[in-house]
Structure formats: C-alpha cells, structure tokens
Amino acid sequence: MAPHLNIVPSMFVLLLLFISASKVQSGAIDVVAKFGAKADGKTDLSKPFLDAWKEACASVTPSTVVIPKGTYLLSKVNLEGPCKAPIEINVQGTIKAPADPGAFKDPNWVRFYSIENFKMSGGGIFDGQGSIAYEKNKDPHNRAFRVKLPVNIRFDFVTNALIQDITSKDSKLFHVNVFACKNITLERFTVEAPADSPNTDGIHMGKSDGVNIIGCEIKTGDDCISIGDGTKNLDIKDITCGPGHGISIGSLGKYPNEEPVEGVKVTNCTITNTSNGARIKTWPGESPGIVSDVHFEDIIVNNVSSPILIDQKYCPWSKCKINEESKVKLSNISFKNIRGTSALPEAVKFICSGSSPCQNVELADIDIKHTGPEPATSQCLNVKPKTSGKLNPTPCSSPVPKTLSATA
Ligand SMILES: *[C@@H]1O[C@H](CO)[C@@H](O)[C@H](O)[C@H]1NC(C)=O
Ligand SMILES: *[C@@H]1O[C@H](CO)[C@@H](O)[C@H](O)[C@H]1NC(C)=O
Ligand SMILES: *[C@@H]1O[C@H](CO)[C@@H](O)[C@H](O)[C@H]1NC(C)=O
Ligand SMILES: *[C@@H]1O[C@H](CO)[C@@H](O)[C@H](O)[C@H]1NC(C)=O
Ligand SMILES: *[C@@H]1O[C@H](CO)[C@@H](O)[C@H](O)[C@H]1NC(C)=O
Fold first, then answer.
1. Which domain holds residue 243?
2. Among this protein's residues, is 245 annotated catalytic?
3. Does the keyword Coiled coil apply (predicted)?
4. Is the CB of 238 inside a 6 Å radius of any atom of ligand 2?
5. Is the N end or the C end of the chain the one with fewer CB atoms within 10 Å?
C-alpha cells in the first residue's frame, strides 16, 4: 500500500479517540473501575468514595469523581477540602443510607466540608431510607433520639458551588443543610419524602451568603425551604413546594446571638397542599434578632392552610413564653402578586411583636379565596401594611383572636 493511503484511516482512528476522550470529564476518577466500588446495594461505598475523593482533591488539575449507574450502600462519608483545583462529583447511581437510625453516632450522612469551586451533578439519588426513623421520631419530645438522626447532605463552609440535577429522598432528618456557605446554587434539585415524615425540611440554611435555589421540586413533611439566622442574599425561584410546610424564615429569636436575615427574594413559586405558604416565624420573649429586606413575589398557592403568615408568637407544642413579645425586629417585607386558594379562612395573617412592631410591610395584588364556604380573612396585630392593587381578602379586615392559637 502506498504510504499516503494510510493517512486517512489513521486520522480516522485519531478522530475516534478524540471523540471518545472528550465524552469523559476532565480527570474522571471512576469509583467502580478504579477503586473497586460495588453497585450491589450492600457493599459499603464509603472507602472507595473517600479514596476517589482524596485523589481528585489532591489533583492540581480539575477532576471528577464518577459514581456510575447502579445502587450502592453508603454507611457515611465526610468529604473534606480544601482541594488543589476545582472538583466535581458526577453521581449517576442511587446511594442508599443504612435504614437503621442506630447506625449513626452523629447527625451526618454525606458531608461536604471546606471546599471551593465544587460541582455535583449527574441525576443521582441520595436515599436516606428514613421510614424506620420516621416512626420513632413522631414524638416531638423525643429530642435525644432526634439530635442523632443524620441529615442526608450537608454543605459546611462550601464556596462557589453548583449542585444540579440531584435528588434527596426520604432523609431521616433535614434533606439538605447549608451552613456557612458562600455563593452556592442548588438547581433542579428534587426532594421527595412523605407528607407525614417529621422534621424532614427540604433545604435548610444558616450563616450563608449568596445561596440560590432555582427550579427545584420539593415534596416533604416539614418546611420545603427553611431559612435560619445569618442568611444573606438568598434567591429562591421557580420552585414547586408541597406537600410540606411551605417556605419559612425562622424560627428565629429562640437562641442568643442570632445573626440577621437580610435580603431574601422568593419569586415564581407554586405551593400546594401545605400548612403554610410564605411565612416568617419568631419566638415570643427570648432573644433579639433582625429580619429585613424580604420579598415574596409571583406565588401561586393551592389549598394552603396559611398562605401569607408573619407569626411572632410562634409557639410549637405550647413551649414558649406566649405572654411575652418577640424581640426580633421585622422590616421591609413585601408580598406581591400572590394568588390561589387557602384551606383555612385566615389567608393573610400578620401577628407582629408588640415591643417592636413590623415596619414597612407591603401587600400588593393579593387574590386568595378560601376553599370552604366562608370568605378568606386577614388579621393584623402591631402592623400597618402598605397596600396597593387588588386585595382579597381586604387587609386587616378581621379581629385578632384574644388567645393566639399555637402553630407548628
Ligand atoms: C459563584 O459560583 C459559580 C459556580 O457555581 C461560579 O461560576 C461563579 O463565578 C461564582 N461567582 C462569584 C462571584 O464568585
Ligand atoms: C416559573 O417556574 C416554573 C417552574 O415551577 C417554570 O417552568 C417557569 O418557566 C417559570 N416562569 C418564569 C417566568 O420564569
Ligand atoms: C393535593 O392534594 C389533593 C388531595 O389529596 C391531591 O389530589 C393532589 O394531587 C395534591 N397535589 C399535590 C401537588 O400534591
Ligand atoms: C388540601 O390539603 C390537605 C392536606 O393539607 C388534603 O388533605 C386535602 O385533601 C386537600 N384538598 C384539596 C381539595 O386538594
Ligand atoms: C428599609 O428600607 C428603607 C428604604 O426603603 C431603608 O432606608 C432602611 O434602611 C431599610 N431598613 C432596613 C432595616 O434594612
């Protein structure tokens, strides 16, 4: 064969090699192929996962830990940085936790700690297998048991991160806990747990700046999203929530030295069959705090018990100083374009503190109908909301009951 005739096939081979190489992520480290993980649903993924993480984290070029399709058992894992270069986890499989709550000595299952430039994606599922824990956790006073229940996924001190196309299922406690993070985005993140699963908040955060929650679907037994002290510049949009307890700021004001919650935007969300819609809750008496610059806009509520709620007499299981006033100051809060139905007549309820009344609360374009025969009502205590647009129910049209009933 003449030499020049060979050039075409070898170029073809090179092209094929190039195409197949470009399909694999840069620096892909496969836990099965390289570290002997077994997708048999019973061999512990812990060591292969950690070994792959350590190799990826030590790499000076970007690298990706790959967990291929299949079902894995994971006892627990603590994935720590700092890493030498951007690091990614591509989870395609389903990772299951031990179902026995007694298998956990501390409240962690999968924990990411001190990492910068992090991404996790791949369509995978973290399954907390919570059903046994739910049964034992139904007693609200069983605190000793609850404090050891693991959160499915924790992000502690994580900066510049994107979590995309991941599902958290049946966590034993909160699904996701974001703590001390900066610039972290959860996008197309799915939460799935039964409506009656206790304390299974979808995404909880605290002491974090620049959290973005976008395009997520959250069905769970507690708050879809709960916002703790020290949250700044939070953006929540395009969320569907329900069943669950809605999107909540708080509870705040129970513990000393809480940091302000400042700059929260919640837009374009649909909330269905939940106990609350847009809520801010603070404890009476107890400790001071600040909530300001909070805006709920373009929200649809379907069959929500309390669609719009500021509750500064938050008092679960009557365990509070109900006759004292909350020391948490609320200001610059708006509810705009909120429509749909409420399952209770009290659709818009502002119970503000007598010692620091809510400042600059705005209601605009509200149209909420009660699903029952009575019209929807609105109650106000220690607040004079600014109003505009069409408003149903008429703001502050109903008296506030003398004894404020406890809410959970
Ligand atoms: C925030 O994090 C993303 C990664 O999710 C990154 O692309 C972006 O540059 C970061 N923004 C800032 C201001 O650092
Ligand atoms: C609102 O959110 C839904 C998802 O719930 C999304 O499909 C839609 O595109 C969003 N609309 C706008 C205007 O962003
Ligand atoms: C809301 O509850 C009704 C009645 O139980 C049910 O038919 C509907 O599917 C629920 N919607 C969602 C989004 O969960
Ligand atoms: C409203 O939601 C409750 C649960 O909060 C559910 O039991 C009821 O069936 C729902 N009703 C409708 C009409 O969807
Ligand atoms: C509330 O907004 C006003 C301007 O609209 C601003 O002057 C004030 O500082 C804000 N209050 C807080 C506590 O952020």
1. 2-392
2. yes
3. no
4. yes
5. N
